[in-house]
Write a structure and sequence with these properties.
heterodimer, A: alpha/beta, Rossmann fold, 2 domains, 7-stranded mixed β-sheet, B: alpha/beta, 6-stranded parallel β-sheet, 3-stranded antiparallel β-sheet, 11 strands, globular, binds thiamine diphosphate, binds magnesium ion
């Protein structure tokens, strides 16, 4: 296994799939000649040429819809949004077209495609460039939502998403692009809908996705020092959710904290805690706790930004509360 | 100009140098009349509350549906808005399946999942049937992208209304299509109204064929009440796109006789205005006159034809109505292709 960055792992997945399947192409703003706004598509234009790696005008709604049409016509588009903040302009094509097409056409047309790009909070870019949207898309039948938390998952999940025959919302995290980790070489696929236990523990289950998985692991280390043995579960696929892995963990620990970077109200944590309540009520020794982003638009000032986001300390505190150790 | 003509000893009509055989003219006429009678039947069924929801008829616009279809290849892609019955009938899809869809029946063309606004027929390369105004325009551009990617010379015929043309997605599409020389013909069905809003109340530039100027997309205006002109100009536009020259805009001047949808009494238009189009420019009457003048048919023949078509449509409605509603299990079909059985929301389950 080689140690590579999260960004290079994504690049490997796309190259691997484009070599394997002639119908796969990458389209988005600055993906070709500029090598990607975050350099995820570095070198891909040279490798595959302008037919398959395509720079677009700044026209999110337009190229998202073009992708939908191309997918309906039999291609396998990978549509990059520079960030998911800008994908809001394309929401109609994602929600009203891609997600509905199979159903609305009585199964005649599919939209096998990936919409991907950076989501979540970036650093010091204020309200419009720092937000989590996974709950928006996770609410919609017809979509799958995938969020890798480390380089190996980035590669395996993106490759699986490109092979998947449905529309996949693939949300990367800008703050993770430079993370380095062991990534299998060659073809590597992680099936969608499978959670991963990132740390085994017995006292409390920390459920966290994307960048928050790293925070949960740091919190687990801190908790270990305090004598609390935390298990960290990373759903990896948000929709559909491998709740069995979560419920099995909760059956063992009897306590759970759900962590997400996004806002609390109607967030992913709300859904996961509701499922734990519905399915594992008798396993619980304490109410499920949630650690989320504060209910504010993201501010610019460093101290305010830090305060707006979930912190390792907050996760530690929440775990102590559910373990009656606060 | 229409003249009586014998080309290669064949009966027919030559208009602006283009020859149409008697056989082809009859086919075009019959198809327009079929669409007219089908829409009337749909209106009737709606009145009887057998069709629900939104239902948009295209009476008056039949020449656009039929002329375009005549000019295109079956392998060309076509997509439009919710005013889609006429287009999909002209494409050659099964009218019983279309009527069954209107009635929400199991044998509907999309299995009863779409209704009036969402007619699709993949086998006929008919891709909707879109209820979001303008949404089909980037999608149609994507079909054209696929043609270019595969180099298979198929043209995407992407239709929108005079209201739809004001959506931003349309201009994003014009730009990409021109930039990448995609084989797409953008057809604007200018029926003068978007719901109750007349063209001049919504558009600063009312010559819609000029809307591509900023993107170097050439445009032409066509009398959409003349099926032969529609066919001829569409053939040129399609050839332009197919030959690799990029997109083209075709503005079809047309008129819908009925309200926007079944709930619209259309009080925003004067009787005189409607009459002027209806009795003065009707596309079916116009072709009938041309054919009678050219000695290709008679008034009596057309009367008989009309009777036959009405009968056919009645039979279609009957057959569609006799179909069962979709099985309740169909609720869960066709949402996801690669279902993941052990993940929540679980396929085909409430909770
Ligand atoms: C995005 C969006 N906005 C509004 C509507 C409601 N709506 C449905 S049809 C219509 C008028 C469209 O008129 P036009 O494009 O001229 O097409 P026509 O109905 O004349 O065929 C409107 C406003 C919609 N379906 N989608
Ligand atoms: Mg209109």
């Amino acid at each position: 296994m080689a140690k590579i960055t999260y960004r290079d792992a994504l690049n490997q997945a796309m190259c691997q799939e484009m070599e394997r399947d002639e119908r796969v192409f990458l389209m988005g703003e600055e993906v070709a000649e500029y090598n990607g706004a975050y350099k995820v598509s570095q070198g891909m234009l040279d490798k595959f040429g302008p037919r398959r790696v395509i720079d677009t005008p700044i026209t999110e709604l337009g190229f998202a819809g073009l992708g939908v049409g191309a997918a309906m016509a039999g291609l396998r588009p990978v549509i990059e949004f520079m960030t998911w903040n800008f994908a809001i302009l394309a929401a109609d094509q994602i929600v009203n077209a891609a997600a509905k097409m199979k159903y609305m056409t009585g199964g005649q047309y599919d939209c096998p495609m990936v919409f991907r790009g950076a989501g979540g909070a970036a650093a010091r870019v204020s309200s419009q460039h720092s937000q989590a949207f996974e709950n928006w898309y996770a609410n919609i039948p017809g979509l799958k939502v995938v969020m890798p938390s480390n380089p190996a998952d980035a590669k395996g999940l993106l490759a699986a998403s490109i092979r998947d025959n449905d529309t996949v919302i693939f949300i990367e995290n800008e703050m993770n692009y430079g993370d380095i980790g062991e990534v299998p070489e060659g073809e590597y696929i992680i099936p969608l809908g499978k959670a991963d236990i990132k740390r085994v523990g017995s006292d409390v289950t920390l459920i966290a996705h994307s960048r928050m998985t790293g925070y949960a692991l740091l919190a687990a280390e801190e908790l270990a020092k305090q004598g609390i043995d935390a298990e960290v579960v990373d759903p990896r696929t948000i929709r559909p959710l491998d709740e069995a892995t979560i419920l099995t963990s909760v059956a063992k620990t009897n306590r759970a904290v759900v962590i997400e970077e996004g806002w609390r109200f109607a967030g992913i944590g709300a859904e996961i805690s509701a499922r734990i309540m519905e399915k594992a009520f008798d396993d619980l020794d304490a109410p499920v706790a949630r650690v989320t982003g504060k209910d504010v638009p993201m501010p610019y000032a460093a101290n305010l930004e830090n305060y707006a986001l979930p912190s390792v300390a907050e996760i530690v505190e929440a775990a102590r509360v559910v373990c009656n150790r606060a | 100009m229409t003249t009586k003509n014998q080309e290669e000893n064949q009966a027919g009509i030559t208009q602006e140098g283009r020859f149409y055989s008697a056989e082809r003219l009859h086919a075009m006429h019959d198809m327009m009349l079929y669409i007219r009678r089908f829409e009337e039947k749909a209106g009737q069924m709606y009145g009887l509350k057998k069709i629900g929801g939104f239902c948009h008829l295209c009476n008056g616009q039949e020449a656009v549906c039929v002329g375009m279809e005549e000019a295109s290849e079956p392998t060309d892609y076509m997509m439009t808005s919710y005013r889609d019955h006429g287009h999909i009938i002209a494409r050659g899809s099964d009218p019983t399946a279309i009527m069954a869809e209107l009635l929400g029946r199991a044998g509907g063309i999309v299995g009863g999942k779409g209704g009036s606004m969402h007619m699709f027929d993949k086998e006929k390369n008919f891709a909707g049937g879109n209820g979001i105004v303008g949404e089909q325009v980037p999608i149609g551009t994507g079909f054209a992208f696929a043609s270019k990617y595969n180099d298979d010379k198929r043209v995407s015929i992407t239709i929108m209304g005079d209201g739809g043309v004001n959506q931003g997605a349309v201009y994003e599409s014009f730009n990409m299509a021109a930039l990448w020389k995609l084989p797409v013909v953008f057809v604007i069905e200018n029926n003068q109204y978007a719901m109750g809003t007349s063209l001049s109340r919504a558009s600063a530039e009312t010559h819609l064929y000029k809307r591509g100027i900023s993107f170097k997309v050439p445009g032409i205006q066509v009398d959409g009440m003349d099926v032969l002109e529609v066919e001829r100009k569409m053939a040129e536009a399609i050839e332009h796109a197919r030959s690799g020259k990029g997109p083209m805009i075709v503005e079809m001047m047309t008129y819908r006789y009925r309200g926007h949808s079944m709930s619209d009494p259309a009080t925003y238009r004067t009787r005189d205005e409607v009459d002027e189009w209806r009795s003065g420019r009707d596309p079916i009457v116009r072709l009938q006159k041309q054919m009678i003048e050219a000695g290709l048919s008679t008034e009596a023949d057309f009367k008989q034809k009309d009777k036959d078509i009405k009968k056919e449509v009645v039979a279609v409605a009957k057959a569609a109505e006799a179909q069962p509603e979709p099985d309740l299990s169909a609720l869960w079909d066709d949402i996801i292709t690669d279902e993941i059985p052990n993940a929540y929301p679980y396929p085909r389950q409430v909770g």
